[in-house]
Design brief:
Elements: H1 7-10, E1 17-21, E2 24-25, H2 31-37, E3 43-47, E4 50-51, E5 70-74, H3 83-87, E6 96-98, E7 105-107, E8 120-122, E9 127-130, E10 144-146, E11 151-152, H4 156-162, H5 167-170, E12 173-175, E13 182-184, E14 196-198, E15 203-207, E16 220-222, E17 227-230, E18 243-245, E19 250-254, E20 267-269, E21 274-280, H6 281-284, E22 292-294, E23 299-303, E24 316-318, E25 340-342, E26 365-367, E27 374-376, E28 389-391, E29 396-399, E30 410-412, E31 417-420, E32 435-437, E33 442-446, E34 459-461, E35 466-468, E36 483-485, E37 492-493, E38 507-509, E39 514-518, H7 522-525, E40 532-534, E41 539-542, E42 556-558, E43 563-566, H8 576-579, E44 589-596, E45 607-614, E46 617-621, E47 624-628, E48 637-639, E49 644-648, E50 661-663, E51 668-671, E52 685-687, E53 692-695, E54 709-711, E55 716-720, E56 740-742, H9 766-800, H10 802-833
Parallel strand pairs: 1-3, 2-4, 3-5, 5-6, 6-8, 7-9, 8-10, 9-11, 10-12, 12-14, 13-15, 14-16, 15-17, 16-18, 17-19, 18-20, 19-21, 20-22, 21-23, 22-24, 24-25, 25-26, 26-28, 27-29, 28-30, 29-31, 30-32, 31-33, 32-34, 33-35, 34-36, 36-38, 37-39, 38-40, 39-41, 40-42, 41-43, 42-48, 43-49, 48-50, ...
Antiparallel strand pairs: 44-45, 46-47
Helix pairs in contact: 9-10
Length: 834
Amino acid sequence: MITDNLEWLSRLSSLKSLRIGSTDFTKASNWLQVIQSHPSLSVLVLEECDFAEVDPSSLSRFNSSNSLAVLSLTSGFSLHPSTFPLLLNISSNLVQLDLSSNNLSGSIPDSFENMPALEFIKFYNNRLEGGIPKSMGNLCSLQALDMRFNNLSEPLTVTLEKLSGCAKDSLEILALAFNDLYGSMPSFVPFSSLTILELQNNRLSGRVQDNFGNFSELTFLNLAGNRFTGPLPDLSRLSWLRNLYLASNQLEGPFPVSIGKMSQLVLLDVSSNALNGVISEAHLFNLSQLRLLFISFNSLSLNLSSDWIPPFQLDYIEMRSCELGPQFPGWLRRQTNFSHLDISHSKISDAIPYWFWNLPSRLMYLNLSFNNISGSVPNLPLKLDYIPVIDLRSNLFYGPIPQFFSNSTVLDLSNNMFCGPLSFLCTKTDNLLGYLDLSNNLLSGSIPDCWMTYRLLTVINLENNNLSGIIPNSVGSLALLESLRLRNTSLYGELPQSLENCRGLKLLDLGENKLTGIIPPWLGERLKSLIALCLRSNGFHGNIPSTLCRQQFLQILDLSLNNLSGTIPSCLNNLTAMAHLRSLQATVHSSYPYADADFTGSFTSNIWMMGTYDDHLLVIWKGLEQEYGKTLGLLKIIDLSSNQLSGEIPEEIASLQGLITLNLSRNMLRGSIIRGIGQLQRLESLDLSTNSLSGEIPKSMVDLSFLSVLDLSNNNLSGKIPLSTQLQSFNGSSYSGNPGLCGAPLSKCPGDEITRPPNNGGSESSTDRDEELFEPLWFFTGMAAGFVIGFWGVLGTLLLNRSWRHRYFGFLSKLGEWICLTMALKMAKLQRRL
């Protein structure tokens, strides 16, 4: 909606409350003047509106509104910075002021004395800088101050001192999180009425003092995401504290017994610190109200007896990387109401008890990964209220996969010993699964043809199983699919054309199967988002389609170990991502949806979130098979080896300056190595072996300074190997099988030896030979003697003169390098003569 002016508002003289959203006021230059002069308006809420710049001369110098008590201008797109100070002079009776999410910048005007009745100030999510104005501390009725998500930068002690006027007795909520406040936590904070203190994600440091502050009413304390050090503080005097966040600091030492005295605690988060030692029943016996417990990413051990009955029923149990094993924690049997359970990386080496699978109906997240938990999962008729995330990867589970696992948003069972068919995937007609990883198991049978029911699926990984059959057509119905990995699953047949509908695919790995047919042109025409394409070790035949050259994001192209023929497409220089020296990102990400719930414990409905999956791919890197994940996006590889390709290497490949690995070996290529090979300055691995290449090695190869793997063997190359530190560092096997090649590291080329005229009919006397052998020895002896005499001749002076001493030893270092080089050359010459 667009409005030209607000004159109509002044005619509604009895109006007390006005709420407007998503309106364009940029043509209503008098908007603030009308508001200021309205006789009875007490509540004004304008959300997601655009505002015009205000002419200060059109306004009263003093706040003239006697009625306005609530002013909320939030999520505006163009609230002009000059308007900010004017709003602080709008009404002496203002009680609530909310200017959140308006992109306000600069310092906060020190003008709050004009609004003595203020109780609520919210400047959340702007770009305000500097510190809190001192006049805020004189607002004797101030109850809540929310400055989160700004750029405030000053010592915390200064901020608190500014607020220690009469506001210290009334302030109940102080939210300064996500700023740039720094310094230490004061030993005493004088806010007797404070109930909520949010200081998370600043740059606060030092120790948190025991029982700091006179916080008799404090219920919520968040100091997470700072740089606090030392032990966990004793906060047992904060008797009403319900939520305590100390995560992501540098706290160390044991888990204090004093925590157990905080009987009102509902949430405790000390994750991602350096805490150590043992948590026993004594630490937890009095926490009857506890519902959310986060102790992950510490070095803590839990010593709880299997028959212990906890005084609490937890909603969230986050104990990742703590030591709970080796036995499966028996105390979990009495936790019957949890929604989130993460005991991954917890050193459990035990069979999972049958009672565990009687899971709570409100389960939303289950993570037992990276343990040595064994046993099968019973096919129970579980009815869950929500659609959970289930992560059991990297354990010793075996047996068939139960049907209730299909009712998940994320299912990761990889690296186990699950067996049997994939029929559990076809038990529902409408599935909300977004991520599926069943790789590295013992699954058998064919891939089911029911993927049309998985409309949200973005990641599929079935690699390294005992599957067989064809790729089903219904895979093409996965319009959101970004990653498909079916490597080493004994698949056969041709690529289904329906796969061209998966236009969001970033990674397609079908390597090490028995697929046949041609590489279809639609791979390049339709799948325009591909970053990695691996079809290695199959039975594909025919030409490499030129449509692959249209892949502007492609960084990994592996078509090796097939039956491809014809020439290498000259259009490969159009692979834009390989031509760029830099990669857009180090990791290849795929996104997937999953269901979560309100973190506060309200599970009335699902909240859909987006997770991020770091793609992995097995590649041949410098002759070795390696899996890359976090750095996959840095690789730029073309591998066309072990095919039947013929013709010449296209010169256009030299344009791919970001290329790191080029493997064209074991083909039938002829002609010469491209002259511009030296332009591939990022190249680390080059394999052109076992072809029919001829001619000389281009001199430009000396520019490949990063080259660490080179194989030009078994060709028809000739001439002298160009001289460079790099090319001579490789073993002779890199050049073997080329009879016409010579020069280091192979044998010398004809003419490299300087022939000397024979003495006395072509024979040398033993005396002459001995003189030649001893000549270098006299040289080294004389040089060493001169060095020693010269050194001790100046030593006394150097000991007495500091500046001379520094200069001399700098010179001596360089002289030593020259001597070592000279000696090495002389010794090499001597050895050749011997």
